[in-house]
Design a protein that fits this description.
Mean pLDDT: 82
Structural class: mainly beta
Low-confidence stretches: 120-125
Strand content: 35-45%
Order of helices and strands: EEEHEHEEEEEE
Helix content: 10-25%
Number of domains: 2
Strand order of the largest sheet: 3-1-2-5-4
Radius of gyration: 20 Å
Distance between the termini: 60 Å
Length: about 120
């Protein structure tokens, strides 16, 4: 059974609740890991009707830790998310500051960097 983790913090059965724009989808495998193996996500007593789950009360969700750096136009940072495991990479261009950027997620860490080019573009008039 999969879950929907709402932006407001609600954990809902995905089969009983429609998706909203900012939901985080928790698939069957991860839900099994959280509910059965780690026992940190548990159903409410009325889950059969409400489809609501919640985090086990004794689980402490710690906040992210950030370390930033800057070397002239090259800036970046490292973030540690003690409650998240992810793998992925994002490459993006921020046109408002003429900046290519990259984000790399490995386990609970996110490394990001950006090259800011603040020169204005020359317009042909």
């Amino acid at each position: 059974m999969s879950l929907r983790w709402r932006k407001n913090g609600d954990l809902l059965c995905a089969a009983k609740h429609r998706p909203l724009k900012d939901d985080t989808y928790i698939d069957d495998r991860l839900h099994y890991k959280l509910a059965v193996e780690l026992k940190i996500v548990i159903p409410r007593d009325d889950e059969l009707v409400s489809g609501r789950w919640h985090w086990k009360e004794k689980v402490i969700m710690s906040r992210a830790r950030d370390w930033d750096f800057g070397f002239g136009r090259f800036i970046g940072g490292l973030t540690f998310y003690p409650y998240q495991l992810a793998v992925g990479m994002t490459i993006r261009y921020w046109p408002n500051v003429f900046a290519p950027s990259i984000r790399i997620h490995v386990g609970p860490f996110k490394l990001w960097c950006c090259w800011i080019d603040r020169k204005e573009k020359v317009r042909n008039g």
